[in-house]
Specification:
Layout lengths: L3 H15 L14 E4 L2 E2 L2 H9 L10 E5 L5 E7 L10 H10 L4 E5 L4 E5 L6 E3 L5 H7 L6 H6 L8 H4 L7 H4 L1 H11 L6 H15 L4 E6 L5 H14 L6 E5 L2 H15 L5 E3 L12 E5 H5 L3 H5 L7 E4 L2 H4 L4 H7 L3 E6 L18 H15 L9 E3 L1 H6 L6 E8 H6 L5 E6 L5 E6 L8 E3 H14 L12 E4 L3 H18 L9 E3 L7 H9 L20 E4 L14 E4 L6 H9 L14 H7 L7 E5 L3 H8 L35 E3 L5 E8 L6 H15 L2 H8 L3 H12 L9 H7 L8 H8 L9 H16 L7 H13 L1 H9 L13 H5 L3 H14 L7
Parallel strand pairs: 4-5, 8-13, 8-14, 9-11, 9-12, 10-11, 12-13, 15-23, 18-24, 19-21, 19-22, 20-21, 22-23
Antiparallel strand pairs: 1-2, 1-3, 3-4, 5-6, 6-7, 15-25, 16-17
């Protein structure tokens, strides 16, 4: 049997030859593998290396790979199969530096690492780079300092779209600016998007090469990605970018966005449409599945072809086999996800392979590790609560509607069916919510779902027709049933208006389903609606799907979502809910300028989430966020109404499936507008901290003694940044939905009941102003409102503060919220005394 050294040598030799490297001169060129500079390898050398890769007569353990001019290009450090190739890392580094080479390959024949000494750490590769591939990569000169030094402002994208926009007359006239921006489709970045980009600049400067953004659906991950792509390409930290998605509709969506944002400076293509010319593009958009098919990513691409790889919906697009695609390419990696991991539960190891929730949890945790965020803190986070608080997103108006049948299905006992066969044997079975349209069928219940949706769904605020809707069904067959019922009801409600195109099934079994999702977003599914002239919206009003339109799907004019199925995965629930959270101005779809002007803004300020299986209640009240899941018991019974999700119920001798024919109607309908604090699924992290803090005996003693300084120090040193939760001040602030900085002491006071809630910025400012009035007692009682406005503006707005302090009052003329006129309304004396009072008595830290 060959030794481990000989086996490794054979494998490494083959890998080198397969990649185009040559041990001997042949018709393709001169030998480009040597043991030391300009000394070619002989057969004796190969035989000697096979005996022991660690010892050679020349004293070298490395292969030196040469370029076309015979100059050192790559050092290959070879180890035997039983050794980790990384153990030769430092030895290879020293040798590479002595030969003035930039690249190192570390291999034991089975595992291979490619290492760019100028950028980051060794990266696992599945094949050795070819001579021309690594030669081309030498031209690539990444520079983290250059990346970090690039100035990124809110007009970073707009400057690519229209470099001279600020000199345009329509931009300079404030009254015309909004229409100018809309006409030219200019995109300006929001503060949190800028913060995300800057977090990457900071992390890269500190040596990071992997980054993760956890940003809620509707917060503009694609626009933020476009800014990062421009940043990396412009600063020459990437020569080409790969944007990975997991669905075809997202492929088209992303490519269209990148063309709209960056086409003046960079080219974007969809790989499958430009298979022969993709190398000419700066940005290549593709699905993971396209590259996985027939191992295309290995046969058609080199590991060095992309210097920045962005994975959209990262927890999906790098799962399973897709990880091989993602890891194949070396360079910077960025993951995008809208799914937070904070609420995912701990799982007992002995249940790891049996419970699907453990699979979900491992996927999320692995996502964070993959992107260098093993602590659980992404590079940047902007949650749904943040988006709602800042006015960029909206929470749903939940319609919890339960029929007689679903009420029983959702009960602890389940829907119990008793039958007697011909021989008099009794059969009894309890069906649960998860059995609906799988083993329990009830056409009257589906009719009740559709009737409730059509009667209570929001209408389009401009045309008055039924608002655009996505309904989520249990299965392909269930989706077909719901689609048929909705079309039949639409015929009754609006005779002659629709031709079986009011509702459309959009599932993987339907031909051209991906294109249908795009057309629905573009208001062209089924053609254009004829309800109102000069108004762009599609004829199809409802898309019935199973899972195609959950992740990353962008359709901001959706105003109804219908959950006609139970959901047990928190990440699925977050994704589905996120389809409706984007804001929208419906007047943008008007063609007639006069009618558009007459209507003014017609904003989407809420959306309706029809919940027919108590999913919201489940994640608000019943889902055990901290439950440790043990190995499920063997499935000894024919079926079970209990199991995942804690629905409870038992089963007896099975009767297989059951069809319910009795009439069914909605018997309970509760409507709730979700407030700014969001749902429990969005708040759960803070509750965990409070329980952890109250359970800490040392902290409890310090609080009882009101030794706040020691208590604060204890939290920072013993509770913050510890596994498994990795609590920190910023994460907890966001989880609590607070719109300002909070102190560790405030956290402790809230956890131990000293304060009922955190005060908002406005409440704190009001408290400070009342103290001001009590202390200063201004005589100008009729001007208190104007003084209050000045007081708040000076605290809240650093720009106002700077101008006031510098005496540059005229500059306030162009300020959007506090102008020179507002300042003049403040009595002369108090224009100076209010800033002086704030500097002396008000801490600005909570408001920064």
């Amino acid at each position: 049997m060959a030794s481990k050294e000989a086996t490794a040598r054979i494998k490494i030799n083959r890998l080198l030859e397969n990649s185009g490297w040559r041990f001997f001169d042949d018709e393709n060129g001169s030998a480009n593998i040597v043991l030391e500079p300009n000394v070619k390898i002989t057969q004796n050398d190969l035989d000697e290396l096979g005996e022991d890769l660690e010892k050679t007569s020349n004293g070298f353990v490395d292969f030196l790979l040469l370029d076309g001019d015979g100059k050192p290009l790559v050092v290959l450090e070879a180890k035997s199969e039983d050794k980790n190739p990384l153990v030769g890392k430092e030895q290879a580094r020293r040798y590479a530096r002595s030969q003035n080479t930039r690249f190192v390959i570390l291999s034991n024949g089975n595992i291979h690492h490619l290492w760019d000494l100028r950028q980051g750490n060794p990266t696992v590769v599945s094949a050795f780079p070819a001579p021309d591939e690594i030669g081309n990569h030498y031209k690539f000169e990444p520079d983290a300092e250059r990346l970090a030094g690039e100035h990124v402002a809110e007009d970073y994208i707009a400057l690519t779209q229209m470099p001279g926009y600020a000199q345009e007359a329509a931009w300079r006239v404030e009254a015309e600016r909004a229409s100018f921006i809309e006409k030219n489709k200019l995109r300006f970045m929001r503060k949190y998007q800028l913060d995300a980009v800057r977090s990457v600049q900071k992390a890269a400067k500190n040596g990071a090469t992997r980054f993760l953004f956890e940003m809620a659906t509707g917060t503009g991950k694609t626009l933020t990605s476009a800014a990062l792509i421009k940043l990396f390409l412009k600063t020459r930290n990437a020569k080409r970018v790969l944007f990975l998605v997991d669905r075809l509709e997202l492929e088209v969506q992303a490519d269209k966005a990148f063309k709209g944002y960056l086409k003046n400076d960079f080219t974007s293509v969809i790989y499958k449409e430009q298979k022969d010319d993709w190398r000419k593009a700066d940005i290549v958009v593709t699905t993971v599945q396209s590259l996985l098919f027939n191992d295309k990513f290995r046969s058609h691409f080199a590991p060095t072809d992309f210097d920045l790889v962005i994975s959209d919906e990262a927890h999906r697009s790098i799962g399973g086999n897709a990880r091989a695609v993602f890891e194949y390419f070396i360079g910077y990696k960025l993951g995008l996800t809208a799914t937070p991991r904070d609420y995912l539960k701990g799982i007992k190891k002995d249940g790891a392979e049996r419970d699907p929730r453990e699979t979900e949890r491992r996927t999320m945790l692995d996502t964070y590790r993959t992107f260098g965020c093993a602590s659980g803190d992404p590079t940047y986070r902007y949650s749904l609560i943040d988006g709602v608080r800042d006015g960029f997103l909206i929470n749903p108006y939940v319609v919890d509607a339960r029929t007689g049948v679903t009420t029983q299905l959702l009960s602890d006992e389940g829907f119990v069916v008793e039958t007697v066969d011909e021989e008099g044997n009794e059969a009894k079975e309890a069906f649960a919510g998860r059995d609906f349209e799988k083993k329990f069928f009830a056409e009257p219940t589906n009719l009740a779902f559709c009737k409730t949706l059509l009667e209570h769904g929001l209408r389009d605020p401009i045309s008055g027709e039924f608002g655009k809707t996505i309904a989520f069904a249990v299965s392909q067959n269930h989706a077909a049933k719901i689609t048929q019922i909705l079309n039949e009801m639409a015929d009754q409600l609006w005779p002659g208006r629709y031709n079986s195109d009011f509702a459309m099934q959009v599932t993987s079994h339907v031909a051209d389903a991906q294109r249908m999702t795009v057309n629905f977003a573009n208001n062209n599914l089924g053609g254009h609606s004829g309800f109102l002239e000069n108004y762009r919206t599609c004829k199809a009003r409802v898309c019935v799907t199973v899972g195609m339109m959950t992740t990353g799907y962008d359709c901001p004019d959706l105003i109804n979502l219908a959950l006609m199925r139970p959901v047990f995965s928190p990440s699925d629930f977050v994704q589905i809910k996120g389809r409706g959270t984007r804001k929208h101005n419906f007047v943008e779809e008007m063609f007639d300028p006069a009618k558009k002007a007459a209507l003014g803004d017609v904003p989407k300020d809420t959306f309706r989430l029809f919940d027919f299986f108590a999913n919201c209640e489940y994640f608000e009240e019943k889902f055990k966020y901290d439950e440790e899941l043990a190995l499920p018991p063997p499935l000894t019974m024919p079926m079970s109404a209990g199991g995942e999700g804690g629905e409870g119920g038992t089963t007896h001798s099975g009767i297989g499936s059951y069809e319910h024919f009795d009439p069914d109607d909605v018997v309970s309908q509760v409507e709730t507008q979700i407030g700014t604090k969001g749902m429990r699924i969005d708040r759960e992290l803070f509750r965990k901290f409070e329980e952890h803090a109250r359970g800490d005996d040392t902290l409890a003693q310090l609080v009882e003694a009101q030794n706040w300084e020691a208590a604060t120090r204890h939290v920072i040193e013993e509770i913050f940044d510890k596994p498994n939760e990795y609590f920190n001040l910023e994460k907890l602030r966001r989880a609590a939905g607070v719109d300002r900085r909070i102190s560790v002491r405030e956290l402790i006071e809230k956890a131990f009941g000293f304060i009922p809630n955190f005060k908002s910025k406005s409440e704190l400012i009001e408290d400070e102003f009342q103290k001001f009035l009590t202390d200063q007692q201004p005589e100008e009682g009729d001007r208190v409102r104007e003084m209050r406005y000045f007081f708040e503006a000076y605290i809240r707005d650093a720009h106002v503060r700077a101008k006031i302090d510098a005496g540059q009052f005229a500059d306030l003329n162009v300020h959007p919220t506090f102008t020179t006129r507002d300042l003049k309304d403040v009595p002369q004396e108090w224009r100076k005394r209010i800033p002086e009072y704030i500097k002396d008595y008000v801490s600005l830290n909570p408001f920064m």
